[in-house]
Write a structure and sequence with these properties.
- This protein is mainly beta.
- Strands 1-9-6-11-4 form a five-stranded antiparallel β-sheet, with no helix packed on it. Strands 8-7-10-5-12 form a five-stranded antiparallel β-sheet. Strands 2-3 form a two-stranded antiparallel ribbon.
- Strand 7 and strand 8 form a beta hairpin.
- The chain starts with a strand and ends in a 5-residue tail after the last helix.
- The relative contact order is 0.30.
- Bound molecules: thymidine-5'-diphosphate (TYD).
- The site of thymidine-5'-diphosphate (TYD) has 5 residues, from strand 4 and strand 5.
- The site of thymidine-5'-diphosphate has 5 residues, from strand 4 and strand 5.
């Protein structure tokens, strides 16, 4: 199974002029990007996510604020990714249960490998836990 991991984007620029970071499909992003969506104004008391996908691959980036992403794989491995710079992202593979907590000012951009499909979601944690690690 593919594993979640941190992606560090190059910071092009300098402190006095600002920065650009770039996501290139099939280069520093390992899949062809089919969809981009963003999440914002999430209260810091809310935990979002709480699901896995059967096929979808995604990269989450906090282009503003901070996002704490917790991942769990079917083998029980739990990791936390602290997205506290716009040049950091986290890759979420298929069968990766994930939750996100946001600072009140966080803006999350998501690069996704496929169109939205509710049938691709595993939203039941017991169903997720029944998946055998490969
Ligand atoms: P969801 O993926 O559960 O968001 P999060 O992981 O941030 O909690 O989606 C939340 C709602 O938005 C859900 O009703 C499905 C809907 N949605 C779309 O209609 N299209 C999309 O592309 C996405 C990502 C979600």
């Amino acid at each position: 199974m593919k594993q979640p991991h941190l992606i560090t984007f190059d910071e092009i620029g300098a402190r006095d002029i600002g920065y650009i970071s770039v996501a290139d499909a099939m280069k520093n992003i390992s899949f062809k990007i089919e969809r981009v969506y963003w999440a914002y104004y999430t209260p810091d008391s809310i935990v979002r996510g709480r699901h896995a996908h059967r096929n979808l691959e995604q990269v989450l980036i906090a282009v503003g604020g901070r996002i704490l992403v917790t991942t769990e794989m079917p083998d029980g491995k739990i990791e936390m990714f602290n997205l506290d710079r716009p040049s950091k992202g986290v890759y979420l593979p298929p069968y990766c249960w994930h939750t996100m907590q946001y600072s009140h000012d966080a803006a999350q951009v998501v690069l996704a490998s496929a169109e939205y499909n509710e049938a691709d979601y595993i939203r039941d944690y017991q169903e997720f836990k029944s998946i055998k690690a490969q």
